[in-house]
Structure formats: structure tokens, C-alpha cells
Design brief:
The protein is α/β, with parallel strands linked by helices and 338 residues long. It has helices spanning 10-20, 46-51, 57-66, 70-79, 87-101, 103-109, 123-126, 133-148, 157-172, 180-184, 226-235, 238-251, 282-307, 323-330, and strands spanning 39-42, 110-112, 153-155, 186-192, 201-208, 214-221, 258-265, 272-278. It has 14 helices and 8 strands.
Length: 338
């Protein structure tokens, strides 16, 4: 039989959760204190933003994925800083920093490998008894590169070229008014002390303009066509993001009704398309309400799991069959392969 998990009080569980959300997992020190009241701030550097002990859309999205295995969520909380990023995530992060934060911030977080850089030396070359002069030059070059760029995300020359092409198309697109949209907005950090579940939340608004009813967010996408991105909006958790961001803005008194996703394809021809999640559209409004309820109940279950220190309950669960398989079986169309 599984051991009874150690139970925590709700206060201790919330404290454990909040302290687990910031760099205290990775770097010894105290959490960054929350502000005295909910507020919008000029953009806060990423490291400081990640230190803020508050829920975020990306965290609740991960909880929704891993809720059935809370021990894995606990592991993710502690180890997420050290996990390698996918190329799609690297490109999106780099484009966001390049376009919205500027070259100075970009150079602090990213380094680009020059196109004419020598090949990286292999471990065999590094430990050769009599390395060639070419090998010694390679080792010296890359050791110096690593020293100068310690802690930065490294971009290959081809990746930087892709970022430049996406930037060019975004700034030339009619959908962004030739880039004017980016100049009329600024990156903003929001911290709400009580939102879904009555706990602190934080968000980084990519493109904030307080004078319009629209919030904008920059996305690198595999496909920007309407039917495909409509599915991705739900499947990849962007609906959760839209609900959190719009709800946060409304909690500050801004009558935001539209969450616009400025998408750019991450491959040639780097097409640009803006997709709106519009609360004046009845279908969109219904999804907004449904996702909001889902987030609130998810936070409650997250706090319950934190009370148990994210221990697994050991319960057996029935398989959750995909809808297509159920429909096919009802129509006697499901073929079971031997």
C-alpha cells in the first residue's frame, strides 16, 4: 500500500507553491516580494519577472497537462529551468526579445554563431594526444565563445537569419500597418494579487495599448492559416492565455474585448496573419466563459495537490479514449490491428 502523503495546511500549501514558482528553486535566496497592490508595470526583465511568486498562464497550462500525475508536475516545478528548449520555443523567445525588447536586451540574453565560425571540436579532438593546429584553433575559438556568452541562449546563424526574415515580414505586413502596431504598443508586466482562485497572478503583455479594446500577442507558428491555427489556439493552450490576459486587463478596469494573435510562420515564406479572439463573437464568448471556469477549478485542484505536497494518490484510472475512437466504434468503423 502507498504511504499516506504528508498533509499541509492550506496556508503552508500556498506558501510552498508560491516559493516553488520562482528562482528559489534554482538559486538560493528569498523570493521577490509581491507588490502592495495589483498593478501594471513597465516591462520587467525576464529574470526578475520569473522571480515573482505568482501563477501564470504557462504554469496553469502545464498543470492542466500533468494534473493526473502530480509528482511529475512537482518535478517540473523544480527542474524546468534546466530543461532544454525546443527550437520552436527558442525562435519564439528570440523573436519576441529582438522585436519587442530591442537589441541591447537581446544581446544580454542571446548570442549568435557567426556563419564563418570554425566547426565545433568533438570530444575526441579535445582529448587527442597530438591535436593539429587547426584543432587547437577550433578549441580556442569555442572556449572563448563559451566564456564570453556564458548563460546566454546560443543561436545558429540560420536561426538568426530566420528571425531577421520574420521581423522583416512583420514590419512590412498590412496586418500590422507596416509595423506601426508595434510602435504604438509597449511590453508591460501585470501582477494581480487576486484573480482565478483568489491567488496572485502575473503576465507579460507583449503589446499593450491602454487606449484600445484590443490586446495583442506575438506568436511564431507552424501554420498561420485560419483553420489550422484555430485548432492550435485550443490545442496549444492559447485559449487559456487569452482568458488569463483579458481577465487580468479587465480586473485593472480596462474594457478589453479582443485578444489578437499576430502570427508569423516560422518557415519560408514567413507569412503573417492576425487572428482575433473576439468576445463580441458569441462562440468566442462562450469559450472564454468555459475556459475561465476551467482555470478557477484547476487552481483549486492545484492547491489541493500542494496540500499533499504533490504526492501521487496511487489511484487506478480508466483510459481516456480519444473522441474519434469512440465515434468510430459507435459506427463500427474502428479496425483493431493484430
Amino acid at each position: 500500500f502507498a504511504a499516506t502523503p504528508q498533509l499541509l495546511s492550506r496556508t503552508d500549501a500556498l506558501s510552498l507553491l508560491m516559493n516553488s514558482l520562482n528562482f528559489v528553486c534554482r538559486i538560493p535566496g528569498s523570493p521577490v516580494p509581491l507588490p502592495a497592490k495589483s498593478a501594471l508595470f513597465e516591462w520587467i526583465p525576464r529574470a526578475e519577472y520569473e522571480d515573482v511568486p505568482a501563477l501564470s498562464y504557462s504554469l496553469i497550462k502545464k498543470w492542466l497537462e500533468l494534473e493526473s500525475v502530480p509528482t511529475e508536475f512537482k518535478w517540473w516545478l523544480a527542474d524546468r529551468w534546466t530543461q532544454p528548449k525546443s527550437e520552436a520555443l527558442i525562435l519564439g523567445d528570440a523573436l519576441d526579445c529582438w522585436m519587442l525588447n530591442g537589441p541591447e536586451s537581446f544581446s544580454e540574453r542571446f548570442a549568435t554563431v557567426m556563419k564563418d565560425a570554425p566547426r565545433r571540436p568533438t570530444q575526441i579532438q579535445r582529448h587527442a594526444k597530438n591535436p593539429s593546429s587547426t584543432t587547437l584553433q577550433q578549441i580556442a575559438y569555442w572556449d572563448e565563445f563559451a566564456r564570453l556568452n556564458a548563460g546566454k541562449t546560443i543561436l545558429e546563424a540560420e536561426q538568426m537569419w530566420t528571425i531577421e526574415q520574420m521581423t522583416k515580414n512583420l514590419n512590412c505586413s498590412k496586418a500590422t500597418d507596416g509595423g506601426a502596431l508595434f510602435r504604438e504598443c509597449k511590453k508591460t508586466t501585470a501582477i494581480a494579487l487576486e484573480l482565478f482562485g483568489g491567488v496572485p497572478w502575473k503576465s507579460e503583455f507583449d503589446l499593450w495599448n491602454p487606449t484600445t479594446d484590443t490586446m495583442c500577442d506575438l506568436k511564431v507558428a507552424r501554420d498561420v492559416t485560419a483553420p489550422v491555427f484555430g485548432r492550435d489556439f485550443v490545442n496549444w493552450g492559447y485559449a487559456v492565455q487569452a482568458c488569463v490576459y483579458l481577465s487580468m486587463a479587465q480586473s485593472f478596469g480596462y474594457d478589453k474585448k479582443v485578444f489578437a494573435l499576430i502570427t508569423v510562420k516560422r518557415e519560408a515564406p514567413y507569412s503573417v496573419k492576425v487572428h482575433r479572439f473576439n468576445l463580441q463573437n458569441d462562440r468566442h464568448a462562450a469559450l472564454f466563459k468555459s475556459v475561465g471556469s476551467l482555470i478557477a477549478t484547476s487552481v483549486a485542484r492545484l492547491l489541493e495537490a500542494a496540500e499533499k505536497n504533490f504526492e501521487d494518490d496511487g489511484e487506478w484510472v480508466d483510459l481516456q479514449l480519444p473522441d474519434w475512437a469512440v465515434r468510430a466504434s459507435q459506427n463500427q468503423e474502428l479496425l483493431l490491428m493484430p
